[in-house]
Design goal:
Low-confidence stretches of chain A: none
Largest sheet of chain A: 3 strands, antiparallel
Oligomer: homodimer
Mean pLDDT of chain A: 86
Radius of gyration of chain A: 23 Å
CATH superfamily of the largest domain in chain A: Winged helix-like DNA-binding domain superfamily/Winged helix DNA-binding domain
Strand order of the largest sheet of chain A: 1-3-2
CATH architecture of the largest domain in chain A: Orthogonal Bundle
Distance between the termini of chain A: 63 Å
Structural class of chain A: mainly alpha
Helix content of chain A: 55-70%
Shape of chain A: rod-shaped
Number of helices of chain A: 7
CATH class of the largest domain in chain A: Mainly Alpha
Largest interface: A-B, 27 and 27 residues
Number of domains of chain A: 2
Number of strands of chain A: 3
Chain lengths: 117, 117
DNA sequence: TTGACATATGCCGATATGGACATATATTTG
DNA sequence: CAAATATATGTCCATATCGGCATATGTCAA
């Protein structure tokens, strides 16, 4: 077998730096391809290809506007990523460390109390 | 130029399904390589390679324990991902839509009041 | 219709990757 | 030390990409 396809879901689409930048640029307002290309300082073809990936995984939508196409953010597609990551929040949060210590102390106390009674 | 390296940051490390599963398995407790391999039903070498990637981007830490190595979650490495994604929350949240409508109505009201006064 | 402008695609080259296998390296035991 | 157990690595294969370039497709204006 070979390398697994990587441009098939939001996680992979977002793994590409340029694509992340595109999404950031689309916050708030739609933009035509050339504008994005200029902003990112990359060629138009490359921009179109990234946009295609983003479109295929549902992170952007297109709207025809005369001779140009306006790309807009489809943020809902980022929810799976958010939900997955948020599942780890408690593990990096300082509060978690404190809670952990607290629980530890509590257990020691319980232990002591247990012995005592 | 050629393809950009993809296993150099958390975003890319997490783009791989198996690696995501490994991280999930490491929530709460450390685990030796073989246990992970069995749980994921993938070969040990493959598991070690995924762990290497995760280690290089700082998402897991290793601890020698006799003849085995215990891998533990280093959730802090996921913060950049979380922070990036959270920046889009308002755009997918329904509340945002409601807030938007609310603001719009408020502005109309202000407008009306302005006219009236 | 022709020309200018905006995008999308196809093709090629260089390289990164995931996976399977065999094997090297360590550590613990007998 | 030798055997067993646990991991890490190197090699080979097939394929997925990213990027550049040339070019096809589509749209609007004169």
């Amino acid at each position: 077998m070979a390398r697994a396809a990587t441009t098939s879901d939001a996680f992979n689409a977002v793994a590409e730096p340029q694509r992340r930048r595109i999404l950031v640029l689309l916050k708030g307002r739609e933009r035509p391809v050339n504008e994005l290309a200029r902003a990112l300082r990359i060629t138009q073809p490359r921009t179109s290809k990234h946009l295609r990936v983003l479109r295929e995984v549902g992170l952007v939508r297109v709207r025809e506007a005369g001779q140009q196409r306006l790309y807009g953010l489809e943020a809902r597609g980022l929810q799976p990523v958010h939900e997955w990551v948020i599942g780890f929040e408690q593990y990096w949060n300082e509060n978690f460390d404190r809670l952990n210590e607290y629980v530890k102390k509590l257990q020691q106390k319980e232990h002591a109390d247990g012995k005592r009674s």
